[in-house]
Specification:
Helix content: under 10%
Structural class: mainly beta
Strand content: over 45%
Strand order of the largest sheet: 3-4-5-6
Number of strands: 13
Distance between the termini: 40 Å
Radius of gyration: 16 Å
Order of helices and strands: EEEEEEEEEEEEE
Length: about 130
């Protein structure tokens, strides 16, 4: 493997590398229309635009699960507690939920979905 990020053109079936090789193993990744986000094994958070420039966001705290929204906001859980982190403010906020254990979570447009072994619970929340 080249350890490079690339773009695949469905119309021409051509794959084009856009970044230099990534040094460390990726433990989390997510993509949207314009960016590819990843966290490596040293808990360093990076992103790359569709033009291939790699930017470092910084080191993030230890996590069990994480949901990255963009380059400056993410939710993560550690030891069963859910947190919101804002990179610009360099602040962590605990998100209070009634579930003491959950398998996963998802956040979109003010709705936090908590997935437990038996059900899905939705919360309407406003992040700072």
């Amino acid at each position: 493997m080249t350890q490079k990020i690339g773009l695949y053109n469905f119309n021409s079936s051509i794959y084009k590398f856009i970044t230099t090789p990534i040094k460390n193993k990726i433990i989390y990744y997510k993509t949207d229309y314009n960016y590819f986000y990843w966290i490596d094994e040293e808990n360093l958070f990076y992103y790359s635009s569709i033009f291939g420039k790699i930017e470092t966001v910084g080191k993030i705290p230890p996590f069990d699960l994480i949901e990255v929204f963009d380059t400056t906001n993410y939710l993560y859980s550690f030891n069963g507690i859910l947190y919101y982190y804002n990179v610009k403010q360099n602040k962590t906020y605990e998100i209070l939920i009634s579930e003491k254990s959950f398998n996963n979570f998802y956040y979109k447009n003010g709705i936090l979905a908590i997935f437990t072994p038996n059900k899905v619970i939705n919360y309407l929340i406003q992040l700072p």
